[in-house]
Amino acid sequence: MIKIGIVDDHAIVRSGLRQFFSEHVDLRVVGEAASGREAIELVRTTELDVLVMDLSMPGQSGIDALAMIRAKAPDVGILILSGYPEEHYAMNLIRQGASGYLNKECDPMEIVNAIRTISLGRRYITPAVAELLARQLDRKDDAAPHEQLSEREFQVFLKLAKGETAGDIAKTLSLSVKTVSTYRTRLMEKMNLSSNSDLTYYALKNKLID
């Protein structure tokens, strides 16, 4: 029996997934969460094999939660189920420890197949993600600027692009304001940008935020 946790801020999505998983004898939903913070608590208190997690959630997003979940539960498989296409986030998140990445428009059976693969301790790589991986290996120097950011820089970049202040970001990520400012300076240099509005424009143009 594969024990699953579902993390999504929409109750209707959690309900639909729970219902769909109940139709498969080897899957059992043992917990749910509606935010990144709740996901961290769920992993801490519940024995799970695979966490199926959305990215866009209020407060602490799936991106923010990923590193903390990895630290607390290194053996739990994490399947990102997102509304964003693979090319926007898959590579960054797989590098950060996600076990697989699926777009919410995928065939529902693909989610089940991914969960079964991940529960065996393997990564689930779709053809689209495999192509992105191959392309990145072919053009190592030609990677998009945001793909060259570290995990923390990427988190801070997305929050700045959404208009969050250094104080807000520091609180959410449990960092000091000074550390956030350091990350901001570093990511600006790496991306060759000079202002927060440049970051927002870049994120919108690359469909990293709505």
Automatic annotation (TrEMBL):
Residue list for modification 4-aspartylphosphate: 54
A Pfam family the protein falls into: Response_reg
Gene Ontology terms, MF aspect: DNA binding
Keywords: DNA-binding, Phosphoprotein
SUPFAM superfamilies, per database record: C-terminal effector domain of the bipartite response regulators (SSF46894), CheY-like (SSF52172)
Origin superkingdom: Bacteria
Domain HTH luxR-type as annotated: residue spans: 142-207
Gene3D superfamilies per UniProt: 3.40.50.2300
InterPro entries: CheY-like_superfamily, NreC/VraR/RcsB-like_REC, Sig_transdc_resp-reg_C-effctor, Sig_transdc_resp-reg_receiver, Tscrpt_reg_LuxR_C, WalR-like
Response regulatory domain span: 3-119
PANTHER family, sorted: TWO-COMPONENT RESPONSE REGULATOR (PTHR43214:SF43)
Protein name in UniProt: DNA-binding NarL/FixJ family response regulator
